[in-house]
Write a structure and sequence with these properties.
alpha+beta; Nuclear Transport Factor 2, Chain: A
Length: 443
């Protein structure tokens, strides 16, 4: 205390704040002996609200929830920074649009783009504020969990589809098949035997051989696969079917084609082959006729099998065994005309033309697919020459030809032809010869 001043506590009779004596105020003198003053901290001197109870919420956040919350805060802060950056970019683009307002169509578009970018930036910048609230934290955690679940589900679906629909590489197998088909007849037979049972049910072996023999003449030998254009695998009632579209180079041309495969007995087998001939590849009529020719010399009565079969049929009819010809013919031939009618017609033709002698020339002799044949020739008869056309068929090359149709064109009668004999009274007239230009029934 400053010197000269007296401590108020030393005056016992000093009045209190209301002016009453100390004795009347009811105060008690307390004497402290040897006490050391203690400094009072700010926390101790802070005001205390009387009657206030601190409420504790049940279930304090665990360490995991705190980590998720902290991650949400960090994510929100990062996204907010990105939002501010995007907003700045949007304002910059908007200024660029204002600078280019004089340019038609361009300035307005740039300004609108800047406004859109600014709106996106403002939306992103609001995320940190949301993350500071309790509901915002729950929302962000739920969004993160949902995002992870959706991404995991999509990854699972994509992985399953890739695993189950893995498209194999058909190029080596297609190349091996084309090499076989282009090598020789033995290679074609080998490819056919190794093909799918479904393919063998659809196409006969002889047809397959003839088709590839014709294709080898047209395109030449197979060289390489220059490109794989498309690969497709489908699954249906009959199993897995694969198809590969190719660009194939041959000796004479490059064309587009496809090889179809069938998954049978744990491996891919040939189901079909197709080649699209290019427009610039020309095939002359002579080449076409040469490919379907029945034999090199159709007049060879010993080595041309079609000629031999036609001559055998005419020899039977000449010997009066027309019924045997009908019996050995196909069912289609037999359904067109019954046996008795066929025998009668051939007898009438023999009366008109006389017995058959030989074929003087061959107009056409061709074989289609190894199973169908046509033989059109001029036949020499005792009374003249008439066109005689045959149709043959067989189920395979190892079987003999069977008659499918027979057509003999009888020439018109001439004025000096012998007139039929006049019948005697009481006796029937003989059957007249069929001297007309009609065509015999086709069998």
């Amino acid at each position: 205390m400053p010197p000269g001043k007296k401590d108020p506590e030393d005056a016992p009779d000093a009045p209190d704040a209301r002016g009453r004596p100390a004795e009347a105020s009811g105060s008690i003198d307390v004497e402290v002996s040897g006490a050391t003053p203690v400094a009072i901290t700010d926390d101790d001197s802070a005001p205390v609200s009387s009657g206030r109870v601190r409420a504790v919420v049940a279930g304090e956040p665990s360490t995991r929830n705190k980590a998720i919350t902290n991650a949400a805060h960090a994510l929100g802060t990062g996204v907010g920074a990105i939002g501010h950056g995007v907003e700045v970019i949007g304002r910059g683009v908007g200024k660029l649009g204002d600078a280019t307002t004089k340019i038609p169509l361009v300035g307005a578009g740039v300004t609108a783009l800047g406004g859109s970018i600014s709106e996106v930036g403002e939306s992103l910048s609001e995320i940190p504020r949301v993350a500071r609230t309790k509901r915002g934290q729950v929302l962000i955690r739920s969004t993160a969990v949902g995002f992870v679940v959706v991404c995991a589900w999509i990854a699972l679906i994509v992985g399953w589809q890739i695993h189950t629909e893995d498209t194999p590489d058909f190029r080596p197998l297609a190349e091996h098949i084309l090499v076989q088909l282009s090598a020789s007849k033995a290679g074609v037979d080998e490819a056919y035997e190794a093909a799918s049972p479904r393919f063998q049910e659809v196409e006969r072996k002889e047809q397959f051989e003839d088709r590839w023999a014709d294709l080898a003449v047209t395109l030449g030998k197979f060289r390489e696969i220059t490109a794989v254009n498309e690969t497709l695998v489908t699954t249906g009632p009959t199993g897995r079917i694969g198809r590969v579209s190719l660009t194939v180079a041959f000796d004479k041309a490059t064309c587009k084609g496809s090889v179809s495969l069938h998954y049978d007995n744990d491996r891919w087998k040939l189901l079909g082959v197709g080649m699209e001939l290019p427009i610039e590849l020309k095939v002359t009529q002579a080449q076409r006729e040469e490919r379907v020719a029945a034999c090199k010399d159709p007049m060879d009565a010993k080595n041309c099998d079609v000629h031999v079969t036609a001559a055998h049929v005419m020899t039977q009819i000449k010997g009066g065994d027309a019924g045997g010809v009908w019996d050995a013919a196909t069912e289609v031939f037999q359904k067109q005309e019954d046996r008795a009618t066929f025998v009668q017609v051939q007898a009438e033709r023999r009366v008109a033309l006389g017995p058959w002698t030989r074929f003087v020339s061959v107009t056409e002799a061709k074989v289609i697919g190894g199973t169908s044949a046509y033989f059109d020739a001029l036949g020499e008869y005792e009374k003249g020459v008439a066109r005689t056309a045959f149709g043959f068929t067989r189920s395979s090359r190892t079987e003999p030809w069977r008659l499918r149709s027979l057509k003999i064109v009888v020439p018109m009668p001439r004025p000096d032809d012998e007139q039929p004999a006049v019948p005697k009274p009481g006796k029937p007239a003989p059957a007249p010869a069929l001297h007309d230009a009609g065509v015999a029934p086709t069998k």
